[in-house]
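pls read this stuff:
=====
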Amino acid sequence: MNVTPVSLKKRLGLELFSRWRDGFIKQHPLNYLFWECTLRCNLSCVHCGSDCRKIPYASSAARPPDMPFEDFIKTIDIIVPHVNPHTTMIVLTGGEPLLRNDLEQCGHELYKRAFPWGMVTNGFILDKKRYAKLEQAGLRSITVSLDGFEESHNRLRGHPESHKNALNAIRMIVQSNSGAAFDVVTCVNRWNFNELPALKELLIKEGVKAWRIFTVSPIGRAAISDMAAENRDLHLDASLFKQLFDFISVTRKEGAIKTNYGCEGFLGNYETEVRDSFFFCRAGISVGSVLADGSISACPNIRPHFTQGNIHNDNFMDVWNNRYQIFRDRSWAKKGECAACRYFKYCKGGAMHLRGKDRNLLFCHLSRLQD
């Protein structure tokens, strides 16, 4: 792959970072654990990255039940002797976590064990009363999705009230003066791309301090081969891709709102310009997950054939220490377009959630930036 050379200064930084990263991989400290606490959701987002929700269930009876919290907390108790709970974040995701009626009880049990915990939500049913209960249960971080203004957000999320409810949730959290870490996440696509400058100003006006941006990945419902024709323009072309990173870079320099691009891929000369550190896919290195069926994985969006065991049959820490080599030794990824790439040493083949069932790379950020 013929790519624009990375500047000498950045190459030196990448060399130092890669040495630190290699040592970190050997240590593989578990400090971020996702729990896919439900497969239920009150929205139907066209870009949903989870394969398990790619095909709608014919009825609620056909949908797999939520994992009993007792099953997950047994795994937490297995982890406790091996980690520092104060520095190990537990993040509840789904589906939509707020659909669990026992969410506060779950959070309280994590809090009793000294684990900081947080959640990712679409904000649709989050109100002041529920948020206060979550805070009392020890909530330490919350992420709410806002994908543009009313038309583009609702189109992406599949509900006419989604934008209004998400914005109300954002306002409520800001006004609560909560001690929880809070950020807004935006999925950038062609429908909302031209709204980014105005959306930035809106978030600043509303008092949001942190904004995380990501782009649509060709997985789950957004897989190109499976998408309806009218939705295929969700994916940015090469020109818009570059313009997005220029926008993020300028926004970061302005300093009015802390803005970061997601941990999705190596970006060449944009590295450290659009996020706080160099690219590093930490899936299976410091990030693990327990999926709704008990599968032990890394990032929840990684395909099921990368799972390493199941909490109903395996000890989580045994799996973490002994079965995650596919994440920690990425030499197998040096194939296809990665085989001759001069930056493989730094990229290691991209984010694991962008690896297909055959382990081939579905999307290369760097090659898109060179188009």
